[in-house]
Amino acid sequence: MKLSKYIAILLIMLSASMVAAQVQFQTRVSKKTLGLNERLRVDFSMDRDGDNFKPPSFDGFNVVGGPNQSVSNSWINGKRSFEKTYSYFLAPTRMGNLTIGAASIEIDNQTYKTNTIAITVTKEVQQPKDPNSAIASDNIHLVAEVSNLNPYLNEAITVVYKLYVAPNTGVSNWRETDDPEYDDFWSQSINPKGLKIEKGKYKGEDYQYVVLRRTVLYPQKTGKLTIEPLKLDVTADIPTNRRDIFGQRLMSKVNVPVVAGQRIINVKPLPEAGKPSDFSGAVGDFEFNLSTSKSELNANESMQAKISVSGNGNLKLLTLPKLTLPNSLEVYEPEHNENVRTNLSGMQGEVSDSYTIVPQYKGKYPIPTVSFSYFDLKTQTYKRISSTETIINVLEGPVYGASDNNLITQGAEKQRVVLNNNQFAFIKTEPNFISKTQQSFFKSKAFWASLLTPLLAIPLAIVFRRKKEQRAGDVVGNRLRKADRLAKKYLGEAKKGLGQKEAFYVALEKALHNYLKAKLNIETSDLSKDKIRVLLHDRQVKEDVVNDFESILENCELARYTPITTVTMQQDYEKAASTINLIDKQIR
Predict the structure, then answer these.
(1) What is the DSSP string of 312-334?
(2) Burial class (CB in 10 A: 0-12, 13-18, 19+), 467
(3) Alpha helices (runs of H) in 101-195, residue ranges in sequence order
(4) Which of 215, 361, 380, 518 has the fewest CB atoms inside 10 Å of its own CB, making it the most exposed?
(5) How many whole angstroms separate alpha carbon 322 and alpha carbon 444?
(6) How does DSSP classify residue 65?
(7) 457-474: per-residue pLDDT in tens?
(8) In this model, does residue 558 exceed pLDDT 80?
(9) Average model confidence (pLDDT) across the chain
(10) What CA–CA distance (Å, rounded) separates 414 from 434?
(11) CA nearest 303: which of 375, 238, 392, 367?
């Protein structure tokens, strides 16, 4: 009887300890019923730290924000409380009954999965339930500024997309949900190098703005053409009535869709009055040139004739004039070259056609005048540039017909020129001489090298193997090298995320934590500020370096609640890299 009682008590104690040690990994949602135009927040939370987190596919939703990572680690009455959360903001793509699938994570070499949650999506609601969305919509505006609403056909115009934000509102991230297609335009986007915050006016009010995109357009049709709007989903930081322990106002994150209005461009046709017969659609300010590589040569030698147009205008869209030559000159298909760059004023550079010409007979051959016409936007008139006539003097070679003047140009009926087999002579670039006296391989340099090389390689292989075994046995050194690789890896990911606040600070915090885990041989659960300070002091790291390390971790936490500029992110990145380098040098 007593034995069964003891067994029952033991089973109760074991079951209680198993329940206490069970991992809690679950999914929480902000709402289970929402409109098609509303947003859903999904939190995946766990009470123990893990690795290799994998979110579900979010079928039926678009991810408009996240993942945002938060960690809570506290001690209350001697009892530790830990919670780590991955948060996503979702926008439904269709109505009906949808499902948030299971996420997975690895904890202590075991895989855990969350529960699935059913979500009902109804038709669009008239008024969003979140009052902060209305505040953000009034404080954030996307504007498409067009340089010219009444251009000529093939005249360059510029569309600049600016995101205006009120001073009391912050923006932490944005994502393009609808990229405009510029039908009936030739287009090229000019992405700005870095985002620069500038001050400006929106409807008479003071705002801050950033230029998101610049696009150069060349209209290809006349009449009214439409520039489709650019659509963004913006994550805005709205101040709330709550304050933190330092007295600063806490911010609330809201996802707001913003749209740049549709713009109508009235494209004017080019005037018919004064249009040259050889006009091919060139619009801008150009220079025209016809040049030859030689003016005198012998028959069966080659030369080049180059037709080029340079300047500012629709260089990639125009047609170069053709070169007309006598039939006695063999002309090959031209090689087309473009050296054109596109900036806010349009295309600039040079386009050219290079012709290879091979004369067959002795004589003097004229290259007729070539003309190029274009529409000048400054004077709004047509202009024509003509080349001067050039004479090609073939000094030596067979005579064509009875005299040199018996020439037929391409303007008349062309006759095929029969070429002889000796038109081009093969030119050897190497002599390829063969020695008459053959050397024996035995006792030659190659013989002794092939004989001694394996013998010399044996001690080198022994030294290499010992070095490899010594390096493999260096546990401390391998751990330090692993820490360096981890820090460089995550710092590299943080550098890629510069300009995107959430992605940057998540990667930066991972770099610092993983560096300490490998450097100090501790687990993530032990990474409290006090523990970090004690461990670094024990390893003889200086006080100012420890303070810098703690300040970077604090910046990673505060960055989730306050607006951060790209300049601040760059400073935090450089400070993190410098601090890790100093710890490597000082730690014992």
Answers:
(1) EE-TTT--PPPP--BTTEEEPPP
(2) exposed
(3) 131-139
(4) 380
(5) 64
(6) E
(7) 888 888 888 887 777 776
(8) no
(9) 80
(10) 50
(11) 392
Beta bridge partners of 243: 249
First CA to last CA distance, the chain: 60
**Could you tell me which of 416, 525, 588 has the C-alpha nearest to residue 49?**
525
From CA 270, how far away is CA 276, in angstroms rounded? 12
State residue 422's pLDDT score. Answer: 54
pLDDT in tens, 174-184: 888 878 888 88
Global pTM exceeds 0.90: no
Pairing of strands 346-359, 335-343: antiparallel
The span from the CA of 92 to the CA of 64, in Å, is 10
CB atoms within 10 A of CB 245: 5
Q: How far apart, in whole angstroms, are the C-alpha atoms of residue 297 and residue 303?
A: 8
Say how far apart CA 73 and CA 83 lie, in whole Å: 7
Is residue 14 helix, strand or coil?
helix
For helices 475-496 and 501-520, the axis angle rounded to 10 degrees is 180
Phi, psi torsion values for 404, nearest 5 degrees: -70, -15
Q: Helix, strand or coil for residue 275? A: coil
pLDDT of residue 18: 44
The two three-digit tokens of residue 298, written as one number: 């012998």
At position 20, the amino acid (one-letter code) is A
Alpha-carbon gap, residue 127 to 585, rounded angstroms: 59
Q: Which amino acid is at 274?
A: G
Per-position DSSP letters for 356-375, written without gaps between them:
EEEE-SBEEEEE---EEEEE
Give one DSSP letter per residue of 511-524, joined into a string. HHHHHHHHHHT--G
